[in-house]
Amino acid sequence: MSGIDGVCAFDHTHRPHRASQPRWQAIKSLCAQHGQVQLDHFHLLCRLGCGDFGKVFLCKINNSLRPHPNWYYAMKIVDRDSLTLKNKLKRVHMEKQVLSMLDHPFLPTLYANFDAYQYSCLVMDYCPGGDLFTLQQHQPDLHFSISTARFFAAEVLVALEYLHMMGIVYRDLKPENVLIQEDGHIMLSDFDLSLHLEVHPKLLKRGPEYEVVNKRMKKPILCCRNSYEDVKRGKKNAATADGIVLLPAAEGEQGVDIVEISAEPINGRSYSFVGTHEYLAPEVILGLGHGSAVDWWAFGVFLYELLFGFTPFKDTGSDKTLNNIIKQSLTFPRRTNSRDRKNSKEIAKAQDLIRKLLVKNPKKRMGYNMGSCEIKKHDFFDGVNWALIRSVKPPFIPTTRTLHEKQTSFSMPKLGVKDKITIHGTHQVDFF
After folding, report:
1. Both 32 and 102 in a single domain?
2. Looking only at Cα atoms, what is the longest distance across the chain?
3. What span, in angstroms and rounded, lies between the C-alpha atoms of 290 and 271?
4. 178 pairs with which residues across the strands?
5. Residue 64: pLDDT band by 50, 70, 90 thresholds?
6. Residue 396 counted as domain residue
């Protein structure tokens, strides 16, 4: 068996949102030149962070192979032998599987993956803005403004919507896993805890003639209209043999065909106890089996933390925190500064959304049946143009010197069958 084996993700996965980017072109050129990507094709510059089962390094393509622009990547390196001993190797396989499926501006691109002896290496996007948790620690009162929280929550919601439509339950939403790209937009990270289930999209159509759905779509959009509200108010609807739900045209929409798609991976259950304790849904703690509704619970906790600086059920220890999640009623602290007093109506909207997300019975939780369609229509997101969300100027754009700009010279580590990778430069970092 070869010690080093590489795969160029470009060769087997078409990614229209990223394929024209220079980073893709650099990887494609590397693949064309060498046939496969290997660890010694990269300079590891510094360690960006570490997780439960791997560490992430800033890297760039080794210019000694062939001149390349200094495009930077993040490389996640995992010790498979260590994970095998902990019976967690399947988490590496899950992350690879999920990353290979993704093609979305708010989710990472897997540029290449390869094995180097006992290590698995994943080459992904580098996000110079750090993570949302660190950014929040630098805010006044350790929480974001209403408008900033709405921006980040909206982008995370769009990313979760895409994951669910792909049949992926994320199961690890928290500010530490929301990264800031160089343009200020978000990117979710860490998919080793994800769950892949079957998904059966529901096609919702508003308009006078359902045949339009089958033949052509005048205005195809994702979950942006008021179909759920119509159902809730008891308006008549019917389902076709194709599973299309027909809804009456809203007032002023006669003659306009509107298509909505709702896709929730609810046809499957997991009984695994995984995730960050403060973000766990009650059904996970109780071992009742769970599906995609756990992401909507976590989304409620996430929004709460953005607005108030801490999670709603946190206590002095893990056991107390888990007990609070199951038994304690939801409460909100007061935000007392002058800016918040002016935004009291917006805070009330946010609290209403959080209450509907943090319902302990998953079947009564907002998002359980209609997913993001339901959540997008909440008053808290009034004014959000979902179709043009990528065109909105982010509240924070990285401007400080990034890690790669601060580094001097580093040499590529020599990797063999040993327990440690050492990066040489202004400092040393032991990998394991």
Report:
1. yes
2. 69
3. 7
4. 188
5. low
6. no
Separation between Cα atoms, residue 130 and residue 403, nearest integer Å = 10
Q: How many independent structural domains does the chain possess? A: 3
Query: What is the distance between the alpha carbons of residues 46 and 284, in angstroms, rounded to a whole number?
Result: 36
Q: At which residue do the structure tokens 């803005």 appear? A: 129
Same domain, 148 and 275: yes
Instruction: Specify the CATH number for the domain of residue 414.
Output: 3.30.200.20
- DSSP H/E element including 119: strand 119-125
Give the CATH number of the domain where residue 166 resides.
1.10.510.10
Residue with tokens 């007032």: 251
Q: Strand pairing partners for 186? A: 180
Question: Is 414 annotated as a binding-site member?
Answer: no
Q: What is the pLDDT of residues 277-335, one digit of tens each?
A: 999 999 999 999 899 999 999 999 999 999 999 999 999 999 999 999 999 999 999 87
Report whether 59 contacts 42 (CB < 8 A): yes
* Catalytic sites, residue numbers: 172
Residue position matching structure tokens 């902990």: 86
User: What are 195's two structure tokens?
Assistant: 């769950």
Give the dihedral of Cα atoms 134, 135, 136, 139; nearest 10 deg.
Answer: 130
Would strands 119-125 and 72-79 be described as parallel, antiparallel, or unpaired?
Answer: antiparallel
159/165 Cα distance (integer angstroms): 10
Task: Give burial (CB, 10 Å; 0-12/13-18/19+) of 383.
Answer: exposed
Q: Report the SS3 class of residue 147.
A: helix
Q: What is the DSSP letter of 321?
A: H
